Amino acid sequence: MKGKKPYLACLPAVAAAVLLLVLAAPSRAAHGNGTKESPKEESSTLQFPVPPPPFSEGIFPCSECHAEMTPNPKRRKLEEEHTNIVLNHGQGRWCLDCHDLKNRDKLHLISGEKVGFDESYRLCGQCHGDKYRDWKVGVHGKRTGYWNGKKEYLLCPNCHNPHNPRFKPLAPKPPPVRPEDIR
């Protein structure tokens, strides 16, 4: 072993073990009959347990007020209702980019598919794919529960105002005290 790096000797064994694991693992996309699911089927089979959306009191269901109104898709400043909403989300966004024109109790995806507010993560994930990916695996946002059991995910609006999602800057805090520095 003189002159050689000892960790290189185990590389073939590690590579073989990884290959075995990859080949033995069942495919996520495989269906019982061995065919792949379409992206639409796959997305609709993913279920994320979430608490009810954090609505402001008295605004849902939206259809209670909007049922008697003629839908007006024209982009405009809201002067009668929802005047407290500051829409500062992306360039040129408008209410009906996310809220459905005819069924105000639903959101709509780019495809036109309607989703409930309890699936808002699917809407947000269309533009914020990296955050959506991280949210699904528990890296972004808050997820509680067990690593190998039941989990609950917070929806994007639990932490972000969907109309003005940026967090205000936070003052930095001092670093944690290392255990060896505790007296």
Output the keywords:
two-stranded antiparallel ribbon; 4 strands; 183 residues
Average of pLDDT: 78
How much is the radius of gyration in Å? 24 Å
Count the beta strands. 4
Q: How are the strands ordered across the major sheet? A: 1-2
Q: Largest sheet, if any?
A: 2 strands, antiparallel
Helix percent reads 10-25%
Output the helix-strand order.
Answer: HHHEEHHEEH
Morphology call: globular
**Which percent band covers the strand fraction?**
5-15%
> Low-confidence runs (pLDDT<50, min 5 residues)?
27-45
The N- to C-terminal Cα distance equals 46 Å
What structural class results from the helix and strand content? mainly alpha
Q: What is the overall number of helices? A: 6
Overview of the structural elements:
- The protein has helices at residues 11-24, 39-45, 63-66, 120-127, 129-136, 156-159; strands at residues 107-108, 114-115, 143-145, 151-153.
- With 183 residues, the chain is mainly alpha-helical.
- The strands form two sheets. It has a two-stranded antiparallel sheet with strand order 1-2. A two-stranded antiparallel sheet has the order 3-4.
- Strand 3 (143-145) and strand 4 form a beta hairpin.
- Helix 4 (120-127) crosses helix 5 (129-136).
- The chain is globular, with a radius of gyration of 24 Å.
